[in-house]
Structures are given as structure tokens and as C-alpha cells.
């Protein structure tokens, strides 16, 4: 009797494990099948490097270069803001802050992670957008810059918590050894702890960036949704993700437009795949 | 040894970690250019005592202390002491070798960077320190290699060199040979005996034979108390306290 029970439980657990893999493979196959259909009529080069995204004009043009640049610009901006602040925050929490402050900060960062992105987007819309418009004297506050700021907030929790773990993972003995050699706290952090945690910090950055690349809701609300090649941070842009979210509802199933959105999905998939792989390599990097 | 000038004087030292009374009323004088070894069973407060002398206990949660540690005519726990400078003057070598994740050269130069601007002088100091730690011949052609490529014994001598490069007055050794084979141990003991000419050495060791081999005086700690201190020979042949004798002869601990 107990043998049968054991057998059944084992099989169920095996099934749970297999199901995830099967689902991922199915999703991937579906994405490929739909996405690749576009390239029967549109050349890959024109798709990736085409400067115009006019999916419903006649004839339609499916150039996603403006969207790629939009995503890149927003990601770059978010990175410039979130990397120094996030890593600085992690160092502060892990090495400098007294215990009570540490706990408060960590709680707040977890809270930040818990805010739904649509809420962040909404808050950004009513506070940040008018501010950016007036402060920089722009015709509109819906710009790549605005999106970058809000996305930086969303990347930060991931970045801080992973970088913090990496900093904690540096053996305590290193710290003691550095102090015993007369190093000050800052010297110890800067010359021993950060180099020791370096690969983990890079992984934290990559995962934070990964979050930014895939984020949809907040960018859609804040970046102005203009599929043109941006000239500066203060131009409206449209990202890859926002394009799919915006247009999927109106694209006729089976149309070129519909397939083009799936192709964008493949591009996004490839980007996040590489970001995650890089993060993974850093994470398991041995000195 | 007792004729040498006093280097460190510990007066009525009590140490607590949270509720644990780790050191109880320690009074001890340490003289210049001697090797004082501290022996005693586990949890007798040897390492805590050592770490009090370079204020490394400051990093430990719940550390409290009373009493005085006079070094260079000043209480090292008084407010106007520069702790980083103190840790340069009183260097420490840990139980397990802890090379920092850099090259051999950078490990030794670590404490010098920022203090000495002149590269040539840094090079000289590194070479001198490696020579004093009897490591120079083994590493002189591979200074740029990672310190982790060295053997355990070499790593420990590297850690000694790293401390020596700072030209301290006192070196604290915390069971420096506990993870090493007999040959490496002999090399480190040899280094310690020569270093005595220039430095004051305090050696915490679990190996009573090592204390007998290298030290001038020996202090016996038990449950946070200093039971007795005397010339090493006397401690090992005619100790005053029964407990000391029991420990040395292996009847407990």
C-alpha cells in the first residue's frame, strides 16, 4: 500500500516538473510559429532596421528600429539612474546602516517591489509628467526621460536585494583581515568587499535591467507612445513592449500586423534571454 | 624579558559579549621584544583577549568592556585614539590564512596603499616583508599571481608578510598554525623567533608544545580568567597552580 502511495507521489512530482518545461516549450514554439510567419512577406533586415512602423497604412511598413531605439533609450536612462542609486543603497544596507535602519530600509524596498506597475505609471502620470514638462519647458512631459525615472524605481528592488545578498556573501573574515591591516570602513568596502562581490553586483544589475526591458504598463503610460526614432531623452518614444500591448487588441488575427507583433515578441524574448544568461554567468562566476 | 620596557599593560580588563562575561579582571604586562604565548582550553577567552588588544572586538555585536589597555602611554579605548592607526601598530595574523582576493603583491601592499605614495618604496617594503616572512624566495617570480594559488602554509606566511609590511610594533598571532602541516608550522615558528628581535609577539595557541618551543613567557587562561603568567620554562616545569599543570599535562581541556 505504502509502495503504491510512494509511486503515485513520485509520479505527481515528476509531472509537475515536466509541465513547466512543456509549457515553456509550447509557448516558445507558438511564438516562433506566429512570429516567423511575418518573414514570408517581410525581410528580416527590413523588419529590424526599417525606420518606419506604420502597421495599418497601405502598404504597411514594419520597421521596428524606432521601437528598439525607444526600448534602448528608456533602458539606458533607467540604468543610469538605478545602477548607482541601487548599488549605493545595497552597500549602505549591507555594510553601513545600523541594524534598525537596515530593517526599515529593507521593508521599504520590499514595499516598492509590491507596488503594481500600473499604479506607479499612474502616479508618474499625474506627478512626474507635468513636472518634467514644466521643469524642462517641453511641449509634452511624456518622454523617454520620464519613463526612465519611473522604471528606475521598478528596477531598484531587484537590484538592491540581489546586490545586497552578494555583499553579504563576501566572507566576514575578509572584512576582519582588512580592518586588522588598518583599513578604514570606506577602504574596506571599496577595496575588499565590492571587488569580492563584483560578479554578484553585475548579476544584480543585469537582472534589474531585465526587469526594465520587459516592463510594459508604466512605460506605456509615461513615454508618449510615439513610434519615431528619438533624437534625445526628452522625446516621446515607444518601446517594444508597449507596442505589443497597444496594438494586439486591434490587430486582425492572422494578418501581417498580427504576425509582426509576434515577431516583436521574439525580439524581446531574445533580448531578455541574453540579459538573463549574462546575469547567470556573472552569478555563477568563480574567481 | 621582564627587564625589557613594558609595551602593553592591561589593567582590570573585563569583557562581555551580550550577557556572556568573556574576560574577568585580567591584569597582564607585555614586554618589548618578547614572545608571550597564551594557552588555555577552548572558550577560555584567549582569542577574545587578543582581539581586545587591536580593538577588533569593536566589530562584534554586543561587545562591552571595562578596564584599561595602555599602549604607547595611552589607553587604546580612550576617545581620541585613531583605531585604524592602532591596528597598524598592533598587527594581527588570524587562525586560518585569509588572503584577500588579489595578487600576492597586492596582498602585501594592501595596507600600504594610500599611506605611502612612492611606488618604489612600496616595492621595497613588500620585498622586505616577504623576506622577513621567509616567503620571498618562493614567490619572487610570481608576485602577480593570485594569492589563492599558494599553499596553505605559504598563504599564512603571506598573511604574516602583509602584517609586517606595515612595520607594526606588536604582532598578535591567533593560533597561526592551527590549519598547517608540521613543516609549515616549523617555518612559521622559525619566523616568529627571528621576528622577536624587532617586534613584540603575542601568540595564542592550542598547542602547548608550540608555546613551550617558541615563547619566553606563557599565560594560562581558564574560563575567562588569567590563572597565571610566568617564564615559559617555569610554567611547564613548576607551575604554581594545579589547574595549569593539569592542562599542560593533558588532564583536561
Give an account of the 3D structure.
The complex is a heterodimer of chains A (287) and B (253). The model of chain A has no long low-confidence stretch (mean pLDDT 90). Chain A has helices at 2-37, 44-49, 65-96, 99-114, 117-136, 144-169, 172-180, 185-196, 198-214, 217-222, 240-247, 256-283, and strands spanning 53-54, 61-62. Chain A has a two-stranded antiparallel ribbon. In chain A, helix 6 (144-169) packs antiparallel against helix 9, helix 9 runs antiparallel to helix 12 and helix 11 (240-247) packs antiparallel against helix 12 (256-283). With 287 residues, chain A is an all-alpha fold. The longest helix of chain A is centred in the first third of the chain and has 36 residues, at 2-37. By secondary structure, chain B is an alpha/beta fold. In chain B, 34% of the residues lie in helices and 26% in strands. Chain B has helices spanning 46-53, 83-89, 104-109, 119-132, 136-139, 152-164, 182-195, 208-214, 232-238, 242-248, and strands spanning 6-17, 20-31, 35-39, 63-71, 74-75, 90-93, 170-174, 200-204, 217-222, 225-231. In chain B, strand 4 (63-71) and strand 5 (74-75) form a beta hairpin. The model of chain B has no long low-confidence stretch (mean pLDDT 90). Classes of the chains: A mainly alpha (287), B alpha/beta (253).
Spatial extent as radius of gyration of chain A = 23 Å
Fraction in helix of chain A: over 70%
Helix content of chain B: 25-40%
CATH superfamily (homologous) name of chain B: P-loop containing nucleotide triphosphate hydrolases
Which residues of chain B form runs of ≥5 with pLDDT under 50? none
Order of strands, widest sheet of chain B: 6-7-8-3-9-10
Compute the number of strand runs of chain B: 10
* Structural class by secondary-structure content of chain A: mainly alpha
Q: What is the class of chain B in the CATH system?
A: Alpha Beta
Name the poorly predicted regions of chain A: none
> What is the straight-line distance between the termini of chain A?
51 Å
Amino acid at each position: 500500500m505504502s509502495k503504491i502511495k510512494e509511486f503515485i507521489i513520485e509520479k505527481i512530482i515528476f509531472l509537475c516538473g515536466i509541465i513547466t518545461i512543456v509549457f515553456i516549450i509550447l509557448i516558445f514554439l507558438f511564438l516562433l510559429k506566429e512570429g516567423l510567419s511575418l518573414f514570408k512577406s517581410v525581410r528580416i533586415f527590413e523588419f529590424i532596421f526599417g525606420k518606419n512602423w506604420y502597421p495599418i497604412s497601405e502598404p504597411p511598413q514594419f520597421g521596428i528600429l524606432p521601437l528598439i531605439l525607444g526600448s534602448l533609450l528608456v533602458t539606458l536612462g533607467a540604468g543610469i539612474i538605478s545602477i548607482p542609486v541601487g548599488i549605493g543603497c545595497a552597500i549602505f544596507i549591507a555594510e553601513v546602516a545600523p541594524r534598525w535602519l537596515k530593517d526599515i530600509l529593507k521593508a521599504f524596498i520590499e514595499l516598492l517591489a509590491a507596488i503594481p506597475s500600473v499604479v506607479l505609471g499612474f502616479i508618474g502620470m499625474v506627478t512626474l509628467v507635468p513636472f518634467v514638462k514644466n521643469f524642462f519647458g517641453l511641449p509634452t512631459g511624456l518622454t523617454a526621460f520620464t519613463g526612465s525615472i519611473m522604471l528606475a524605481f521598478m528596477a531598484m528592488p531587484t537590484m538592491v536585494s540581489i546586490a545586497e545578498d552578494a555583499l553579504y556573501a563576501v566572507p566576514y573574515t575578509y572584512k576582519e583581515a582588512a580592518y586588522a591591516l588598518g583599513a578604514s570602513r570606506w577602504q574596506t568596502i571599496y577595496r575588499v568587499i565590492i571587488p569580492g562581490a563584483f560578479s554578484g553586483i553585475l548579476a544584480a544589475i543585469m537582472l534589474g535591467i531585465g526587469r526594465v526591458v520587459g516592463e510594459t504598463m508604466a512605460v506605456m503610460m509615461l513615454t508618449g507612445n510615439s513610434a519615431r526614432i528619438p533624437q534625445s531623452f526628452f522625446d516621446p518614444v515607444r518601446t517594444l513592449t508597449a507596442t505589443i500591448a497597444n496594438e494586439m487588441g486591434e490587430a486582425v488575427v492572422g494578418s501581417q500586423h498580427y504576425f509582426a507583433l509576434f515577431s516583436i515578441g521574439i525580439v524581446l524574448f531574445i533580448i531578455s534571454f541574453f540579459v538573463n544568461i549574462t546575469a547567470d554567468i556573472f552569478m555563477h562566476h568563480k574567481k | 624579558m621582564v627587564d625589557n620596557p613594558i609595551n602593553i599593560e592591561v589593567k582590570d580588563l573585563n569583557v562581555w559579549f551580550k550577557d556572556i562575561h568573556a574576560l574577568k579582571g585580567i591584569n597582564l604586562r607585555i614586554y618589548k621584544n618578547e614572545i608571550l604565548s597564551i594557552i588555555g582550553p577552548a572558550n577560555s577567552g584567549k582569542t577574545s583577549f587578543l582581539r581586545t588588544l587591536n580593538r577588533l572586538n569593536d566589530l562584534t555585536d554586543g561587545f562591552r568592556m571595562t578596564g584599561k589597555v595602555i599602549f604607547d602611554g595611552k589607553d587604546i579605548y580612550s576617545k581620541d585614539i585613531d583605531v585604524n592607526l592602532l591596528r597598524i601598530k598592533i598587527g594581527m595574523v588570524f587562525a586560518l590564512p585569509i588572503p584577500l582576493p588579489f595578487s600576492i603583491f597586492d596582498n602585501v601592499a594592501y595596507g600600504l596603499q594610500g599611506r605611502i605614495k612612492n611606488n618604489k618604496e612600496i616595492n621595497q617594503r613588500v620585498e622586505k616583508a616577504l623576506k622577513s616572512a621567509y616567503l620571498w624566495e618562493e614567490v619572487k617570480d610570481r608576485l602577480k599571481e593570485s594569492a589563492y594559488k599558494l599553499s596553505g602554509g605559504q598563504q599564512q606566511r603571506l598573511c604574516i608578510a602583509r602584517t609586517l609590511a606595515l612595520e607594526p610594533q606588536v604582532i598578535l598571532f591567533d593560533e597561526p598554525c592551527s590549519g598547517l602541516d608540521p613543516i609549515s608550522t616549523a617555518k612559521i615558528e622559525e619566523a616568529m623567533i627571528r621576528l622577536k628581535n624587532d617586534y613584540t609577539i603575542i601568540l595564542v595557541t592550542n598547542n602547548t608544545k608550540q608555546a613551550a618551543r617558541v615563547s619566553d613567557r606563557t599565560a594560562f587562561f581558564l574560563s575567562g580568567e588569567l590563572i597565571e603568567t610566568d617564564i615559559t620554562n617555569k610554567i611547564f616545569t613548576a607551575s604554581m597552580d594545579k589547574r595549569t599543570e593539569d592542562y599542560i599535562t593533558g588532564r583536561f581541556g
